């Protein structure tokens, strides 16, 4: 809690909360870049499940590169949101579930795209709900926190 | 449009009641965001391909994902309407909401332009660049959808009556 309070009361933390635009700029960037990461992930899953067979499997890594471009924006904007309200996110178990779901989905997709394995269909079926959980988890963070700020 | 009539419809239809159950609003928001992701993962990827990303993928092949984007858009019309009828005053007098709709109008016109003029005989096989008009259409599409998301996200920022709206 001391650490959370220190982050929250740091100059950056205070600025993120008090600036008229910082938080919303981060939310906008987070929403759009997250949409690209998850959308690309779902598109790759769809292809592995047999949709749009004209898309060469060998080219799927080019699609994952789109998510690769968006990911730094997701992480940076996410960091801004966490530094602004560290206790809100880091004391909520859902936050870790969201991160875990996205990490597993990313790792799985990266592995499947490198060279589609025999279990690619199973992997696609598994990563789809993980992407969904990543998005829904993020949305529910705004409704499930026990602590907003540490006093 | 009459705010009171829309609010009454929201209440009478039970949508307002459902949205205000404990998990109603975040559940529908999650569906809205997931469908938004599907739109980016289909139409957005197609636009990026037209603009020169992932040229190894033939454009007609990637176009097979677009129907998923259309379905996702339909889902978002429904989920969006659920938000709207549950708190019409928060949207009708909101500049961000109006700008979001302006962006959707641009995206809609852009779709008409694309399918009436450029979709047939679409260039862009493996490794082949899209033609310049298709590139322009793709850039407009991508810009419009990013605008839709940006202004969508700003709806809660410009929550009336705390913010000024030049037209409302």
Describe the structure.
With 151 residues, chain A is mainly alpha-helical. Chain A has seven helices and no strands. Chain A has helices at residues 2-9, 11-18, 22-48, 60-84, 86-90, 93-114, 120-144. In chain A, helix 2 crosses helix 4 and helix 3 runs antiparallel to helix 7 (120-144). In chain A, 45% of the residues are buried. The model of chain A has no long low-confidence stretch (mean pLDDT 96). Chain B has 168 residues and is mainly α. Chain B has one domain (3-164). Chain B is built from eight helices and no strands. The longest helix of chain B has 27 residues, at 24-50. The radius of gyration of chain B is 18 Å and the shape is elongated. The A-B interface holds A 24, 27-28, 31-32, 34-36, 38-43, 46, 51-56, 58-59, 62-63, 65-66, 131-132, 135-136, 138-140, 142-143 and B 23, 25-26, 29-30, 33-34, 36-42, 44-45, 48, 53-58, 60-62, 64-65, 68, 126, 146, 149-150, 152-154, 157.
Outline:
Chain A has 151 residues and is mainly α. Chain A is built from 7 helices and no strands. Chain A is elongated.
Number of domain units of chain B: 1
| Gyration radius of chain B, rounded | 18 Å
User: Which oligomeric form is depicted?
Assistant: heterodimer
Proportion in helices of chain A:
over 70%
Distance between the termini of chain B: 12 Å
The share of residues in helices of chain B is over 70%
Question: Given the C-alpha coordinates, what overall shape of chain A results?
Answer: elongated
- SSE class of chain B: mainly alpha
Compute the number of helices of chain B: 8
Strand content of chain A: under 5%
Work out the helix count of chain A.
7
- For the residues shown, what is the average pLDDT of chain A? 96
Largest sheet of chain A at a glance? none
Strand tally of chain B, please?
0
- Unreliable residue runs of chain A: none
Most extensive chain contact?
Answer: A-B, 36 and 37 residues
* Largest sheet composition of chain B: none
Beta-strand segment tally of chain A: 0
Strand fraction of chain B equals under 5%
